[in-house]
């Protein structure tokens, strides 16, 4: 953007008075974006007013860009809307959730260039950024497909010693807190969040600290898909600061922690005792996120479902 | 029709026609009142003060259920909650339970021996569009069944048609029918249209003998707002300066969060002072508010934000 602008100004003829005082006005004012987090379908700054700075390699003077630095209260507000969105999201038919996810893929496809550019500005080479974006969109399509199929795989009719039908079905858990991996910033975030929402949960995701900007650009696509507000809430900030609050919150049902330092993960597990949260931690190497066979396994959906077993009288 | 309180109400003039006190009230600057009400909601209230405010708001709460499906079981359950909102010993009981007249005996029985009062809506709640004698009978019946407080509605249609003296007479008659019971007059500000009319209706209600003035039935949107509450609080303040009488205030409807409750306490403190920060002169009419306040108190105690699933619905 900035480069293009400078090229234009260089070619613009300067008026006499401007040449005198050395000021050459740009042909256009540059329009720069205020990156915002996505909470409850709304684009928000941090209620604290805090910002973090991320490098902007596209700018000439090495300027940095601001992204919101979420606070404890932002986490709390996000939990409230995620809890509010859960009933509606889990209450939709599995088929409809699949349709909505596919619609998300359509929206991402249209923004493919923008997402790839965001990844480039986050430090990737152009070819890798394009490959990651494509893989991320394909990942959405995969989970759109799984939305109405994983239930059959994990349900069972259990033999019991009595005149009862006994069957087990997976159900959603509620609000799940996710710490996304540092890299891949886009595919890692979506790859972690998609299996969780496919199961009917709602999510609060703390974006990669290495490249938070890409997650905020993704947020703009999430908001224009048919995904109801509050199903995916994207926060940018410091996991070390925010995770303990998420872990302590009694309304959060589970945590999915990627590449969280052992000491911080241990603290989160301790704080999670209050409401017996399910805490899953893992570190997947970057290449493994691109392995569609393993990363779209229904086992990933199974990590955040609650199994419900029902006894029903049979026979007459 | 002569009732205690009020300024020479119902007196027959020399010509035999009744004379009324002066209902006129100052006009309200809409922009200013909304700005001031909003500004008073931006206070930063820190830990100990916040806890004290939240506990006070529970002691001032009229725990309300006004639904067609209210059953004796539900009202009994709500009474238990009003008497003992939380296991912690420092959490006080609520001020009152607010129910429909038919459920007054149930509430009275459930609350026997406690400090919690029974308030009943009456006078053809929520519209108030019945004949006066029917409305008065409604009140007498509720009082006979044991109501300590009566929440009446004014006939908004009559007020909008300019029949101020009729409103005055009806409130005065209702006050008489209340006997020993306290009278709260619901203005239903959401239907009055302007702050000027809210201020005037407050004036009429106070002159006619109201013990409390109350914003809303909870059946109309908008219900209580900080701005309309501020207008009514200022009417109470000016009435106190003019007559020396302390009238109570009850915002009701739409107050759902602990933050809102604290906002209302700040409005009262800044407009009327500490004298009004008591359940005798200030009440919050609410149903879902209590749980949010309890959740915030638990958050302050434990440091963890709470889940609504851990608090009883009624």
From TrEMBL, chain A:
<feature type="domain" description="Aldehyde dehydrogenase">
    <location>
        <begin position="44"/>
        <end position="257"/>
    </location>
</feature>
<dbReference type="InterPro" id="IPR016162">
    <property type="entry name" value="Ald_DH_N"/>
</dbReference>
<dbReference type="InterPro" id="IPR015590">
    <property type="entry name" value="Aldehyde_DH_dom"/>
</dbReference>
<keyword id="KW-0560">Oxidoreductase</keyword>
<dbReference type="Pfam" id="PF00171">
    <property type="entry name" value="Aldedh"/>
</dbReference>
<feature type="region of interest" description="Disordered">
    <location>
        <begin position="1"/>
        <end position="23"/>
    </location>
</feature>
<dbReference type="InterPro" id="IPR016161">
    <property type="entry name" value="Ald_DH/histidinol_DH"/>
</dbReference>
<protein>
    <submittedName>
        <fullName>Aldehyde dehydrogenase family protein</fullName>
    </submittedName>
</protein>
<feature type="compositionally biased region" description="Basic and acidic residues">
    <location>
        <begin position="1"/>
        <end position="21"/>
    </location>
</feature>
TrEMBL record, chain B:
<keyword id="KW-0456">Lyase</keyword>
<feature type="compositionally biased region" description="Gly residues">
    <location>
        <begin position="1"/>
        <end position="13"/>
    </location>
</feature>
<feature type="region of interest" description="Disordered">
    <location>
        <begin position="1"/>
        <end position="21"/>
    </location>
</feature>
<dbReference type="Pfam" id="PF01791">
    <property type="entry name" value="DeoC"/>
</dbReference>
<keyword id="KW-0704">Schiff base</keyword>
<dbReference type="GO" id="GO:0004139">
    <property type="term" value="F:deoxyribose-phosphate aldolase activity"/>
</dbReference>
<comment type="similarity">
    <text>Belongs to the DeoC/FbaB aldolase family. DeoC type 2 subfamily.</text>
</comment>
<dbReference type="GO" id="GO:0005737">
    <property type="term" value="C:cytoplasm"/>
</dbReference>
<dbReference type="InterPro" id="IPR013785">
    <property type="entry name" value="Aldolase_TIM"/>
</dbReference>
<dbReference type="InterPro" id="IPR002915">
    <property type="entry name" value="DeoC/FbaB/LacD_aldolase"/>
</dbReference>
<comment type="pathway">
    <text>Carbohydrate degradation; 2-deoxy-D-ribose 1-phosphate degradation; D-glyceraldehyde 3-phosphate and acetaldehyde from 2-deoxy-alpha-D-ribose 1-phosphate: step 2/2.</text>
</comment>
<dbReference type="InterPro" id="IPR011343">
    <property type="entry name" value="DeoC"/>
</dbReference>
<dbReference type="GO" id="GO:0009264">
    <property type="term" value="P:deoxyribonucleotide catabolic process"/>
</dbReference>
<dbReference type="GO" id="GO:0016052">
    <property type="term" value="P:carbohydrate catabolic process"/>
</dbReference>
<protein>
    <recommendedName>
        <fullName>Deoxyribose-phosphate aldolase</fullName>
        <ecNumber>4.1.2.4</ecNumber>
    </recommendedName>
</protein>
């Amino acid at each position: 953007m900035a480069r293009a602008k400078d090229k234009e100004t260089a070619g613009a003829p300067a008026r006499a008075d401007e040449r005198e005082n050395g000021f050459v006005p740009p042909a256009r004012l540059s329009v720069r974006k205020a990156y915002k987090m996505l909470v409850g379908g709304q684009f928000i700054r941090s209620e604290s007013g805090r910002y973090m700075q991320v490098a902007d390699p596209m700018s000439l003077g090495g300027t940095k860009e601001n992204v919101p630095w979420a606070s404890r209260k932002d986490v709390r507000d996000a939990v409230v809307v995620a809890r509010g969105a859960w009933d509606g999201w889990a209450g939709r038919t599995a088929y409809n959730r699949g349709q909505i996810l596919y619609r998300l893929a359509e929206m991402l496809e249209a923004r493919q260039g923008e997402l790839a550019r965001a990844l480039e500005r986050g430090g990737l080479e152009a070819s890798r950024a394009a490959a990651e974006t494509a893989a991320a969109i394909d990942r959405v399509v995969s989970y759109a497909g799984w939305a109405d199929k994983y239930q059959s795989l994990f349900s069972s009719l259990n033999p019991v010693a009595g005149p009862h039908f006994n069957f087990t079905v997976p159900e959603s858990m509620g609000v799940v807190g996710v710490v996304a991996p540092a890299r891949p910033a886009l595919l890692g975030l979506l790859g972690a969040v998609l299996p969780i929402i496919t199961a009917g949960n709602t999510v609060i995701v703390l974006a990669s600290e290495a490249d938070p900007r890409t997650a905020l650009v993704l947020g703009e696509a999430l908001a224009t898909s048919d995904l109801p507000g509050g199903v995916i809430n994207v926060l940018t900030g410091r996991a070390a600061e925010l995770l303990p609050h998420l872990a302590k919150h009694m309304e959060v049902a589970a945590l999915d922690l990627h590449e969280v330092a052992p000491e911080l993960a241990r603290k989160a597990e301790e704080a999670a005792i209050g409401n017996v949260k399910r805490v899953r931690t893992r570190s997947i190497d970057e290449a493994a996120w691109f392995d569609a066979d393993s990363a779209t396994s229904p086992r990933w959906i199974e990590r955040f479902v609650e199994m419900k077993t029902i006894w029903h009288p049979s026979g007459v | 029709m002569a009732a205690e309180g009020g300024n020479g109400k119902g007196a027959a003039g020399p010509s035999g026609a009744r004379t009324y006190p002066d209902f006129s009230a100052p006009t309200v600057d809409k922009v200013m009142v909304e700005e001031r009400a909003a500004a008073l909601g931006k206070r930063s209230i820190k830990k100990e003060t916040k806890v004290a405010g939240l506990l006070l708001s529970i002691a001032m709460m009229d725990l309300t259920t006004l639904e067609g499906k209210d059953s004796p079981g539900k009202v009994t359950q709500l009474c238990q909650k009003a008497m003992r909102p939380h296991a912690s010993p420092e959490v006080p009981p609520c001020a009152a339970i607010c129910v429909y007249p038919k459920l007054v005996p149930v509430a009275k029985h459930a609350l026997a021996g406690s400090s919690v009062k029974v308030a009943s809506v009456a006078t053809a709640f929520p519209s108030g569009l019945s004949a006066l004698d029917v409305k008065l009978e409604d009140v007498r019946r509720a009082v006979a069944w044991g109501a300590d407080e009566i929440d009446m509605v004014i006939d908004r249609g009559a007020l909008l048609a300019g029949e101020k003296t009729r409103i005055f007479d009806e409130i005065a008659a209702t006050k008489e029918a209340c006997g020993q019971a306290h009278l709260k007059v619901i203005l239903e500000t959401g239907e009055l249209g302007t702050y000027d009319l809210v201020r005037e209706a407050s004036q009429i209600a106070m002159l006619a003998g109201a013990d409390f003035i109350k914003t809303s039935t909870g059946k109309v949107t908008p219900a209580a707002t900080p701005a309309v509450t501020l207008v009514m609080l200022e009417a109470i303040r000016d009435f106190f300066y003019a007559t020396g009488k302390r009238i109570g205030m009850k915002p009701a409807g739409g107050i759902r969060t602990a933050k809102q409750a604290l906002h209302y306490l700040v409005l009262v403190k800044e407009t009327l002072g500490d004298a009004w920060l008591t359940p005798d002169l200030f009440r919050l009419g609410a149903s879902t508010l209590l749980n949010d306040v309890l959740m915030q108190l638990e958050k302050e105690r434990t440091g963890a934000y709470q889940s609504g699933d851990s608090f009883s619905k009624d």
